[in-house]
Design a protein that fits this description.
With about 290 residues, the chain is of the alpha+beta class. The protein is built from 4 helices and 19 strands.
């Protein structure tokens, strides 16, 4: 937690959620200070600020972009993408500036965000990546749509082969017959830290209930079991399509709510649509801890 001057920084923090994914949006525009892992973890310890992901808004460093966005998980680690959090950022920016769209830059991509007539938001998550080096995974796999992830203790969880993909973040998707009987809390950490993932992975467990419907629970790297995961829902839909289990547009139902995911055929982009809920705004004061 470092500052560049001797004044106390006052950070406007919006507490929000997207389909149950608990999100904090910290507005750093005009503030000569940037957060770090320690600050993110300190917010997690405040009961009123319990969160899955912390999104920061900063002034744009790219032409044609309205804001730069950085993403922290609640353990202080960083993420390259967060679909639910990006919708929350879009809500803040669009309500402030008016109009129906905004463009933000994350570590993964420049993302176009739109407010729909229904009041929901749609974000363009870009093209999914399936190559071993792009996910990334530690060794080359000829077909990432079907990869057996052996456990170090030799146990067989009965999950079958995982589909691996990147939607900005690495994902492993397991297709199960009965999601209600799947112990996400026990299985998630095992595969999040599997040796094949040098940067850890988000782990999704999905029950396909139709060509355009599926049930999903996600163990997020750096956050644990969450009520919703936008990039996880995207990875699930594209993985189901690759397996021939679903059409290119589906409703993904998670414990916190529903998202609509479409894998557009003409340009290969994945579109994520869903609700945003605003809870409240607070001012967080950061004391001077010395220069950067």
């Amino acid at each position: 937690m470092k500052r560049v001057n001797n004044e106390r920084a006052q950070i406007r923090v919006h507490k929000m959620h997207g389909a149950g994914n608990k999100i904090l949006v910290a507005d750093l525009r005009g503030v000569c200070w940037r957060p770090d892992a320690e600050w993110a973890r300190s917010l997690k310890g405040i009961s009123d600020f319990a969160f899955d992901q912390l999104m920061t808004i900063e002034g744009p460093s790219h032409p044609g972009v309205d804001a730069d966005v950085d993403i922290f998980n609640n353990d202080g680690s960083t993420a390259r993408a967060c679909g639910n959090g990006t919708r929350c950022v879009a809500d803040v920016l669009i309500r402030e500036a008016g109009g129906s769209s905004t463009v933000v830059a994350t570590r993964a991509a420049i993302i176009v965000c739109e407010r729909l007539e229904s009041g929901a938001y749609r974000v363009d998550m870009g093209r999914p990546a399936f190559e071993s080096s792009q996910i990334p995974i530690a060794w080359d796999v000829p077909d990432t749509s079907s990869v057996r992830l052996a456990r170090s203790d030799g146990r067989d969880d009965g999950l079958g082969e995982a589909a691996l993909a990147s939607i900005g973040n690495p994902h492993a998707v397991f297709f199960v017959r009965d999601l209600s009987a799947t112990d996400v809390g026990a299985l998630g950490p095992t595969y999040e830290t599997h040796p094949i993932f040098p940067d850890r992975a988000n782990v999704s467990f999905v029950q396909v209930t139709g060509r355009d419907t599926m049930l999903l629970k996600v163990w997020e790297r750096g956050a644990g079991a969450t009520l919703a995961c936008g990039s996880g829902a995207c990875a699930t839909l594209v993985s189901a399509v690759r397996r021939g289990l679903a059409d290119r547009k589906a409703t993904v139902s998670m414990p916190g709510g529903e998202l609509t995911i479409e894998w557009r055929e003409d340009d290969d982009h994945v579109l994520l649509s869903g609700p945003v809920e605003y809870e409240r705004t607070a001012i967080v004061v950061v004391d001077d801890l010395g220069p950067l």
